[in-house]
């Protein structure tokens, strides 16, 4: 409801602008020159957005035109009917019909008609609003829909970003939902840094990465380093499964207030030519300027070594890697690739990483800390449980240890026993090793 006052005023203003331009064109009245960007200077998300971008009059009107069908489907039809009471077609106005939407959807031609009329010079100025270099496109705010080959580019619909629509209407942006169009899911954790047990060398490198996340904006913008350093940060986490790579990524996000999205590569990679690049484009376009952490788990599927070209499949697979490399380098946030083996990742990527962090198999002292951290405080432990001996005997990762404890504690509760004993832990270990194929 925060935007209602501004939306009401903005739609009334847009109605007056469009109606006036149309009536002038039909020679029903003379034009009155208007070039004001007018909205209520309140604290609504609507006002804050336009205060941050300070659009020109033309940019402001184009944004309102792209927004209005999402609020008043009949908006443009009503104005045309008011000016053409006897009916008739007006191709100069532009606009198209949608599949489900029954009103007029404005196009680039509609923007030219309303803001420039027949003034050729002015029409070209309006066309420039939709160039790739304009902030509409640079900030992923608004673009023209692509049209079929041979049709005028300006006949494409005005496409306002879905997040901008949400911000200008309901006043907030909902997190993206996992889908084919956005093949990533937000991950979080209730754990803290104290719960993460890593080799000291690994933890030291993670602290360096955290420093970048906390101080990069100061270094780039206030100290002027952006002239010398590429934006964004790229890191490779490699090591056996269950050694803390995913948990580290989520804790980095939690400690710095940034959302972490784990990319589902099974939804991203496609056997159809060009589809993988399209899926990646949607993902990176959505993430741009959000300060999200993008976490590519089991990254070998996309970031693996390129092959010698023997057939068309190899050619397009290598093109996918090249495109991905380009998008990763251009991303202005943190990208983390996770792999079991460093050697599985293409050297073209590793050369561009700011950090390559090894997550080794935990040593005995780290396994002991993992057992002690994961054990619930409510647990009564039998006298035959010697944690240092258990840590030394069973070579397990942190994920393995959590699984063993879960199984052992459930067994204890189901049996009605009051103490967790060694036999229950040993049974849990055997079950875990069998599951992983390390024991017959």
Mind sketching the topology for me?
Blueprint: H1 4-25, H2 45-53, H3 57-67, H4 75-83, E1 96-97, E2 104-105, H5 108-116, H6 120-127, H7 135-138, E3 142-144, E4 158-160, H8 162-169, E5 184-187, H9 200-222, E6 233-238, H10 245-256, E7 260-263, H11 265-268, H12 275-287, E8 293-296, H13 300-303, H14 312-330, E9 334-339, H15 347-350, E10 355-358, H16 364-374, H17 387-393, H18 398-415, H19 422-435
Parallel strand pairs: 6-9, 6-10, 7-8, 8-9
Antiparallel strand pairs: 1-2, 3-4, 5-7
Write a brief caption for the model.
The protein has helices at residues 4-25, 45-53, 57-67, 75-83, 108-116, 120-127, 135-138, 162-169, 200-222, 245-256, 265-268, 275-287, 300-303, 312-330, 347-350, 364-374, 387-393, 398-415, 422-435, and strands at 96-97, 104-105, 142-144, 158-160, 184-187, 233-238, 260-263, 293-296, 334-339, 355-358. The chain is α/β, with parallel strands linked by helices.
């Amino acid at each position: 409801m925060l935007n209602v006052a501004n939306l009401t005023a903005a739609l009334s203003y847009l109605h007056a602008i469009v109606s006036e331009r149309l009536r002038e064109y039909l020679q029903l009245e003379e034009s009155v020159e208007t070039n004001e960007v007018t909205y209520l200077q309140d604290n609504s998300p609507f006002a804050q957005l336009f205060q941050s971008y300070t659009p020109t009059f033309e940019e402001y009107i184009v944004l309102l035109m792209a927004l209005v069908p999402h609020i008043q489907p009949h908006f443009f039809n009503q104005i045309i009917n008011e000016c053409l009471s006897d009916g008739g077609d007006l191709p100069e106005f532009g606009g198209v019909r949608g599949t489900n939407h029954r009103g007029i959807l404005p196009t680039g031609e509609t923007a030219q008609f309303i803001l420039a009329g027949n003034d050729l010079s002015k029409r070209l100025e309006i066309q420039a609003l939709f160039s790739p270099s304009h902030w509409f496109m640079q900030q992923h705010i608004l673009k023209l829909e692509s049209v079929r080959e041979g049709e005028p580019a300006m006949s494409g619909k005005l496409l306002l970003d879905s997040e901008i629509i949400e911000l200008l209407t309901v006043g907030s942006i909902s997190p993206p939902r996992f889908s084919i169009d956005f093949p990533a899911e937000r991950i979080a954790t209730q754990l803290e840094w104290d719960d993460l047990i890593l080799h000291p060398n690994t933890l030291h490198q993670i602290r360096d990465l955290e420093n970048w996340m906390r101080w990069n904006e100061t270094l780039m913008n206030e100290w002027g380093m952006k002239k010398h350093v590429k934006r964004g940060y790229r890191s490779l986490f490699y090591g056996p499964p269950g050694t803390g790579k995913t948990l580290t990524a989520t804790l980095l996000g939690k400690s710095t207030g940034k959302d972490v999205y784990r990319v589902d590569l099974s939804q991203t990679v496609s056997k159809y030519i060009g589809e993988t690049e399209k899926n990646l484009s949607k993902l990176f376009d959505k993430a741009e300027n959000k300060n999200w952490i993008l976490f590519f788990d089991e990254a070998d599927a996309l970031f693996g070594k390129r092959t010698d070209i023997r057939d068309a499949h190899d050619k397009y697979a290598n093109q996918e890697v090249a495109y991905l490399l380009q998008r990763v380098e251009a991303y202005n946030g943190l990208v983390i690739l996770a792999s079991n083996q460093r050697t599985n990742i293409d050297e073209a990527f590793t050369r561009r990483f700011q950090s390559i962090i090894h997550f080794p198999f935990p040593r005995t002292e780290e396994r002991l800390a993992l057992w002690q951290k994961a054990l619930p405080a409510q647990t009564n432990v039998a006298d035959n449980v010697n944690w240092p001996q258990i840590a030394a005997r069973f070579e397990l990762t942190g994920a393995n240890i959590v699984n063993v404890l879960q199984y052992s504690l459930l067994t204890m509760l189901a049996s009605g026993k009051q103490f967790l004993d060694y036999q229950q832990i040993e049974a849990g270990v055997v079950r875990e090793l069998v599951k992983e194929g390390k024991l017959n």
